[in-house]
Amino acid sequence: MFEMTTEPDAKVIQTPDIIKHWQDFGKIYSEHFEYNTQPMLYSLIMNLQIFQAEKLLELSCGGGKSISVVLSMKKPDCEYIATDISKNMLNLSMSRMEYIETDFKGNLQFFDEFAFNEKEKTNYKNYFPNNKTSFYLMNNEVLEFKDESFDICFSNLSLMIVENPEKMISESFRVLKKGGKAGFTVWGNQEKSLFFSLPKKIVQKYKINLPNDRGCFHLNDRKLLITMFENAGFKNILCWSQFFAYNFQTEEDFNLHLDTKGIKKSFDLIPNEEERKKIRKEVLDEFMGFIQKGEPVGLDIFFIIGEKL
What we know:
By secondary structure, the protein is α/β, with parallel strands linked by helices. Helix content is 42%, strand content 18%. It has an eight-stranded mixed β-sheet, sandwiched between helices. α6 (165-175) links the parallel β5 (150-156) and β6. The model is unreliable at 1-8 (pLDDT under 50).
């Protein structure tokens, strides 16, 4: 069993701040980070056996790189509904879906810059009949769907971000039909997840007082996850961990990572600029040390799946 990583009085990020983060971070995430989430998604939906479903619900679809993976596995007549809390991310997902329906050439990466550069579209179509796919702006903790609407509900790397993960789990249970399944992924073991845990670990070594925010590792406890699913009513629960290597392999890659808002705020707390540069270089050297030894840097993931009987 892994220990909980959040202090009892840790600050929980509120939903409006979560929305703002993804509105701001969405572009760089979709361009450089979202690729690395797809193997996790594929493992999740394969184990959920989405190819058996008549109606699918994906929560927090992000920028929509999951779309082509889901479409490749679902039945042709299966209805697929995807939601996100960020308008920018949802806009990008719909842009990519339109591309799939009209002129898909095998890559969702390089056509969609406009989705973050134009003003928000209020009349962008959200239904795509060729693939029976719809998109909705929605909070995972307050799903605007009727009880027992879906065969399968899933979400990749969202449960540990929402303000109240128990509410997200209970809502997924509510909207599932009897016999339906829900599945989620969350960040796992910190020691195996150096892509995210190493910068903070090194900064803390220099006695820098970091904010006591609830981090994304707060659900990295198998017993806790199973208990949360049991409390929501799920049965036949499966829970396991897998490591996923990230495709960051050069100093340029890791510098991009260290410049992201979530990592950079730790360095910004170091008052002396020279000290800040020194610590940042130490982090970078640690990352590159693993690569030079032939060891990828990545993220450990917990999967959990349950059934509504």
